[in-house]
Amino acid sequence: DIQMTQSPSTLSASVGDRVTITCRASQSISSWLAWYQQKPGKAPKLLIYKASSLESGVPSRFSGSGSGTEFTLTISSLQPDDFATYYCQQYNSLWTFGQGTKVEIK
Amino acid sequence: QLQLQESGPGLVKPSETLSLTCTVSGGSISSSSYYWGWIRQPPGKGLEWIGSIYYSGSTYYNPSLKSRVTISVDTSKNQFSLKLSSVTAADTAVYYCARHDAAARPDPNWFDPWGQGTLVTVSS
């Protein structure tokens, strides 16, 4: 099984901050990684696929990078709508999610 | 616009079988580019993939749940279903259905879109 580990688990930030979330895979997954945003009581929403491809309609302040075992999701300038929990998901071998990173208001 | 909607009992007794259906609207479940998946999320916790099915009936299951899971598809109704047997309190979760993209590679990739989710509580 491929394990996905996100850091930090919680992140406190202010509007306008640059935010970076890290996701590490227990073995190489090439670029087979997606990122999701989930707000309380709602289903996850796809943000990025294939590590760095932005899903249609997702604001350009979101970006993804990385390959192999280390990946990052960056929000260039945090907006009020971005306070949420973010999950990474690998699809190299079956499908597993990271434990999530909650972005909260500082 | 593709939409998915979960339905089924919100309360299941321990040792019984959890049964949920996902109805797909705004698109065909028989598309060659997609699988259809189930994911769950225990209250306050993270996401766990349960299994996925192709319109032909081909399935993938999470090895940790495989002995208890059956996913089936009904193309005439544009629906797919989940059965999870011998449930315990640990199976209490919000259950989501989602389209599982398989357009980019032979194996499925990411999940998009998702249904709104349905909370299933296991309790006597």
UniProtKB/TrEMBL annotation, chain A:
<protein>
    <submittedName>
        <fullName>IGL c1411_light_IGKV1-5_IGKJ1</fullName>
    </submittedName>
</protein>
<keyword id="KW-1064">Adaptive immunity</keyword>
<dbReference type="Pfam" id="PF07686">
    <property type="entry name" value="V-set"/>
</dbReference>
<keyword id="KW-1280">Immunoglobulin</keyword>
<dbReference type="InterPro" id="IPR007110">
    <property type="entry name" value="Ig-like_dom"/>
</dbReference>
<dbReference type="GO" id="GO:0005576">
    <property type="term" value="C:extracellular region"/>
</dbReference>
<dbReference type="InterPro" id="IPR050150">
    <property type="entry name" value="IgV_Light_Chain"/>
</dbReference>
<dbReference type="InterPro" id="IPR013106">
    <property type="entry name" value="Ig_V-set"/>
</dbReference>
<dbReference type="InterPro" id="IPR036179">
    <property type="entry name" value="Ig-like_dom_sf"/>
</dbReference>
<keyword id="KW-0393">Immunoglobulin domain</keyword>
<keyword id="KW-0472">Membrane</keyword>
<dbReference type="InterPro" id="IPR013783">
    <property type="entry name" value="Ig-like_fold"/>
</dbReference>
<keyword id="KW-0391">Immunity</keyword>
<dbReference type="InterPro" id="IPR003599">
    <property type="entry name" value="Ig_sub"/>
</dbReference>
<keyword id="KW-1003">Cell membrane</keyword>
<dbReference type="GO" id="GO:0019814">
    <property type="term" value="C:immunoglobulin complex"/>
</dbReference>
<feature type="domain" description="Ig-like">
    <location>
        <begin position="2"/>
        <end position="89"/>
    </location>
</feature>
<dbReference type="GO" id="GO:0002250">
    <property type="term" value="P:adaptive immune response"/>
</dbReference>
<keyword id="KW-0964">Secreted</keyword>
<dbReference type="GO" id="GO:0005886">
    <property type="term" value="C:plasma membrane"/>
</dbReference>
